[in-house]
Amino acid sequence: MKMIESSRQVLVCQNRTCRKQNSAKVLAAFEKFSPSEVEVVASSCLGQCGNGPMVLVLPEEVWYNAVCPEEVAAITEQHLRGGKPVEKMLYRKFHRLSN
Ligand code: FES
Predict the structure, then answer these.
(1) For a Cys staple, 76 with which of 33, 61, 85, 95, CB 3.0–4.6 Å?
(2) Does the pLDDT value for residue 96 go beyond 70?
(3) Is 97 contained in some domain?
(4) CA 69 to chain centre
(5) How many structural domains compose the chain?
(6) CATH number of the structural domain spanning residue 49
(7) Residue 68 main-chain phi, psi, to 5 deg
(8) pLDDT by residue (tens digit) across 27-80?
(9) By residue range, what is the domain housing residue 84?
């Protein structure tokens, strides 16, 4: 079992359905672009199959869905480094539009 060393984690689902939707490349992009203090985790199913690739940022529980590898840099810059979730990319099932 992997020890959790940082308080911030990005879970990128690598289970079957998300893998079919290119989640391995999304994981690779997070590993490339994330700040070193953020732990990037290849997770098992996040329970949202078919809406993926699913990404969950902890501890704030911010969800992104249908993430493309090309979009990862925006999440790492604006959210992981800047502290502001990328509103337009949030998973609408769990995050309502603010207006
Ligand atoms: S396979 Fe990714 S959420 Fe279930």
Answers:
(1) 33
(2) yes
(3) no
(4) 11
(5) 1
(6) 3.40.30.10
(7) -95, 150
(8) 999 999 999 999 999 999 999 999 999 999 999 999 999 999 999 999 999 999
(9) 8-89
